[in-house]
Amino acid sequence: MGNDLEKHLIVRFLPSGVDNIYQLEYGIKQSNRIDVSQRLGDNMYRLRFQVIALAILSFLKQNPKALIRFSANDQTRMRLFTIWISSNWDFVNQHFVLYGYTAMNRWKLFEKNHSYLAITVKLIQYSTYERNSYKS
Q1: Which residues neighbour 59 within 8 Å (Cβ) at sequence distance 6 or greater?
Q2: Could you give the CA distance from residue 134 to residue 32 in angstroms, rounded to a whole number?
Q3: Angle between helices 45-62 and 75-87 (to 10 degrees)
Q4: Among 91, 105, 102, 106, which Cα is nearest to 136's?
Q5: Of 53, 55, 59, the residue nearest 89 (C-alpha)
Q6: Are strands 107-109 and 96-101 parallel, antiparallel or unpaired?
Q7: What are the tens digits of pLDDT across the range 14-31?
Q8: How far apart are CA 24 and CA 11, in angstroms?
Q9: pLDDT at 44 over 90
Q10: Which helix (H) or strand (E) covers residue 59, if one does?
Q11: What pTM did the predictor assign?
């Protein structure tokens, strides 16, 4: 699949029961559906999340008041997503404000190299946080 990843990877934003909050879902196109359980090799995660990050950025620019929530159906997806965020911190920090849901059942400002059960993403200019308090 390699170079054809962008043709096969589908990223969509499903409305939640709350206004302006969308659940991020991604997977591989299989006939007329998206298979969210199919795994690409871990070596593909960089390209996969680059495509996803650009889709998030595009969606949020079109829906600036929206908040994207990502909670993986398995811990591997969440771990790879947080690794990608940490590896691409300058890009992420330039465009987004992220919060992570911890095992202590709390939302907190995302910090690199921490593990989370869920992550929310919002465009910086539509967030109420103070830039100086954003931890790297």
Answers
A1: 13, 22, 66, 68
A2: 41
A3: 80
A4: 91
A5: 53
A6: antiparallel
A7: 899 899 999 988 877 766
A8: 7
A9: no
A10: helix 45-62
A11: 0.76
Task: Work out the number of other CB atoms within 10 angstroms of the CB of residue 114.
Answer: 12
Distance of alpha carbon 124 from alpha carbon 134, whole angstroms: 11
Q: Give the whole-angstrom CA distance, residue 105 versus residue 24.
A: 20
The number of residues in the chain equals 136
- Return the structure tokens found at 28: 């591989």
Residue whose entry in the numeric block shows the structure tokens 């997806």: 77
b/e string for 69-94 if b means 16 or more Cβ within 10 A?
A: bbebeeeebbebbbbbbeeeeeebbe
Q: What DSSP character marks residue 73?
A: S
In angstroms, rounded to a whole number, what is the distance separating the alpha carbons of residues 15 and 25?
Answer: 11
Tell me what the pLDDT averaged over the chain comes to: 79
Distance in angstroms (rounded) separating the CA atoms of residues 90 and 115 = 19
Measuring CA to CA, which residue among 61, 77, 94, 60 is closest to residue 25? 77
Selection from 75, 82, 87 nearest residue 121 by Cα? 82
Q: What is the DSSP letter of 84?
A: H
Cβ atoms 76, 84 nearer than 8 A = no
